[in-house]
Amino acid sequence: MSSKLLRGTFILTLGTIISKVLGLFYVIPFYSIVKDQGTALYQFSYVPYTIFISIATAGVPLAVSKFISKYNTMGEYAVGRKLFKSGIIVMLASGFISFLAMYFTAPILAEMSLSSAEENPMVSQEDVTTVIRAVSFALIIVPFMSLIRGFFQGHQSMGPSAVSQVVEQIVRIAFLLVGAYVVLNVMNGSLVAAVSVATFAAFIGAIGSLVVLGWYWYKRKPYLDELLKEDKRSLDISLKDIYKEILLYAAPFVFVGIANPLFQFIDQITFERAMTAIGEGAQATAAFAILNFQTHKLVIIPVSLATAFSLTLVPSITKAFVENDRKSLNHQLDQTFQVLMYLTVPAAVGLSILAEPAFTVFYENKELGTEVLRLYAPVAILFALFSVTAAILQGINEQRFTVLSLLTGLLVKLVLNIPLIQMFETQGAVIATTLGYVAAILINLTVIKRYANYPFKFAARRILLILIFSAVMGVVTYGLYAGLTQIIAPTTKLSSLIIIAVCAIFGAGVYFYLGLRSRLLYFLFGSKVDRIKQKLRLPI
Predict the structure, then answer these.
(1) How many other CB atoms are there within 10 angstroms of residue 506's CB atom?
(2) What is the pTM of this model?
(3) Domain boundaries, the chain
(4) Which of 99, 371, 470, 537 is 20 to 30 A away from residue 66, measured at CA?
């Protein structure tokens, strides 16, 4: 069973990584089709959609899989099937209600995002209302789809979730790009119509995923029915108790899932007004696109893999805490923080140094984009830290503090956002996000220290070493970058790609060498280091 579980986890992780990679690189052709105005419109609709979908489904696959796995282990297969049958109705109902709520509140959301059409000539409230309504249709299907994924995962079957995620992303991106291009260049339609098609792609992608899940259900239903015949029938749990348990499982994931979209939503409802107040209303839409869509897509890159790797350690943290094994708990926490920082810090530093070529490769050479990305890149470390510390709080059964830390961080962001934007323009929003996340993370760390009785000294020393190595890597990379830009200007996609490739390979080599010589790599990754050295044909 353990090998099956490991294989399943690998498949699901691989599917998630492929999905995220696809979700990153589609922005290159999409931006070339719709430019700043189009990406701003897209983001005006997608941030509210992300919040709605996170509330409707965040944690559902994990909560349902945890519930079903628990009762399957006890031989109570009928309990999981009972949840699935009733859950279909519940999730369809909640999805339709969420769709109606988003569709009919679209004008309100648009009004919150923009002060008036006259002050922002690039985007009007009617435009934003249209694209919000276009994306809202996906809410009908996605919650129901999440339930099916959770059901399969509860039976240790990760393939359906992984494949459906990838298919959903491929179908969505294909429809998004082809649809936007055809509307603008073949049908000579408006930009609003093109972006509406692009946001409606979320609904089409969900249908593609649902078809895949339906096929898996058809193929595996005989096996699932055989399990029902082995049911012990010793438990009769009411639907009320079932959903109470599901909500307890899902609640922590909801708050972690909506954290980043909520920070983005604060920018969405304050940015244009703050810029207009200082006489920069005409540039607000383009600047918002850079802040909330273009640079944010790049900043998330260092977060995804590091967070995924670190979160694999959380189950062992839970086990150690429940068994009151302080030595093991401290060791697992040490590993989590060190692995997270070892992977995230150099990536964030490198992205900040290579901000100009990175932005040019994905979008175009633009001074504001470079400036915002350079400042925004290190915030990736905070994004990762919040996710992991929130997961640790769940592991030590103190997830209630996640609500407190998130609300505190959002309050800091909300209070400081407008004055900082008025002082520093677009960069002010990044500073406010930084301060909000710092406040939330400090609360999480304080709770971990108090309730897990965790001493931070050892991890702090190691993290200091990681920071020193990252600084050395940064200095060397910057020196190489400065030299290369004297020969090749990062003004085209090809020249920028060459600069990134050379600097990234050289910088990663320096960082890997420092970790190897100090044996820090062995402390963090153990025997995996030797396997990597063998593949790279390095002397052991």
Answers:
(1) 17
(2) 0.89
(3) 1-253
(4) 99
